[in-house]
Amino acid sequence: MPLRLVSRPGEDGAVAGLLDRACASPSALVLEGEAGIGKTTVWFNALDLARQRAFTVLSARTAETESVLAYAGLADLLGTVDVSAWTNLPPAQRLALERVLLHSDDGRHETDRRAVAAGFLSVIEGLAQQAPVLLAVDDLQWLDASSRHAVAFAARRLRGRVAVLVTERIDPAVGSTCAWLQLPRPEDLTRVRVRPLSLGGLTAVVSDRLGRSVSRPKMVRIAEISGGNPFYALELARVMGTGPAGAGAPLPSTLADLVRTRVGSVTSDVGNFCWQRRV
């Protein structure tokens, strides 16, 4: 479950600005950063804020293992939409969306990708006439190809009150792989780098998730090694054990050492389990 304790003024301000702009015209925000930096936490908080502002929220969290499943992401985006939103669509678009949601499939014809994309756009624009819409995708880089086509098609043609919010995992050596996401006006899409947490932020995250305090010297060292990445900070804190603050195993000096420590722990646990079963 994502943590919601730590304030991120820059990222939270960007989200609030996105929702403000979307009340008048289409707007998009890409939250980018390394794995574990906190993009999903900001994303979840944005969904909560949008609902408080009476936005209709269509959301999907993608996974690398599902990136080969046709329309998996699009089905999640449309999963909470009432069927009445597409009952008046042209028959081809309505049938295409019903197939995406596995509500109908006669098996005789392939799903028309253009009909899916056009139907998706029609649903979004129809919902936006009733209330502002937030279209939100977490880990956009793993969105399956079929859903990517539909989202790209719709985003380039948006005209109503729609906010598009996505997170993207960035590899510094590669850069963005999601340049396909475009709005009718390029200036309406903003990219914001999710920044590392401060020492105070990391301390709050570790204390809340682990249910125990960690001494300041240990937290300073954790902050140095993790570079402010809350995921790595939590893993570092876990290797210290569950004893009182300041006790436990010495901290790994690098993230590579941390991975080796965690893998070694898992390997040992599996070995013990297998030995007990054999005995």
Automatic annotation (TrEMBL):
Keywords: ATP-binding, Nucleotide-binding. The keyword Secreted does not apply. Residues 5-163 form the Orc1-like AAA ATPase domain. One of its GO terms (molecular function) is ATP binding. GO terms for cellular component: cytoplasm. Signal peptide: none annotated. This is Orc1-like AAA ATPase domain-containing protein. It comes from Mycolicibacterium duvalii. The lineage of its organism: Bacteria, Bacillati, Actinomycetota, Actinomycetes, Mycobacteriales.
